[in-house]
Amino acid sequence: MRVTSAGWQNCFSTTSRSATRPSSARTGAASSDSASWRVHRSDSLASCSVIPDCRPASSRSRRHSWRGKVLAGVPQFPIGTIVNGGSATTLPDDVVAAYDAPFPDDSYKAGARIFPSLVPTSTSDPAHRDNLIAWDVLRKFERPVLCCFGDRDPVTKGGDAIFTRLIPGAAGQPHTTVEGGGHFIQEDKGVEVATIIANFIAATPRS
Prior knowledge:
There is one protein chain. By secondary structure, the chain is α/β, with parallel strands linked by helices. The chain has one domain (about 1-205): Alpha/Beta hydrolase fold, catalytic domain (Rossmann fold, 3-Layer(aba) Sandwich). Helix content is about 35%, strand content about 15%. It is built from 9 helices and 5 strands. It starts with a strand and ends with a helix.
């Protein structure tokens, strides 16, 4: 078994060893169309701004502002500072530096810069169709799904509601709101989140 990250939404799934992330996947939700049959259980962490019909969410204007700045090619795009700003706690200097380390100059940041454009924010967005296809799969997804969101996430707090309402496998699961967790919840409450996931895996054996 392994835990794999799939896209801007910080969605993590436990998959079989043979599972691979489809090259066509734009986001965590969109990847469900190609890979859901291999997923035995799913843990949705921290956020999900991808909603079935792109209706406005409470933080939509903030996402639009962030998306516009990134796509406009702002000259400064400090990865470590961005992660620090999205965390509820202040990260130590060495942790910020560790996030910066893989990006010695801007030529290494193309992937990070393009991420926001992969989150559909309107029905005219290129990713909108993929999002709808993914939700067609998720509405039928009956394997266990657990949502674990931080209560101090400035970007997507409350995004778990769409999952728990529309995904059959989310019914009756011990969804958790982690106190003191920001957008990068793994930095604020890493041990707590890891424990939640481990307990979820132990309670939902592979069928």
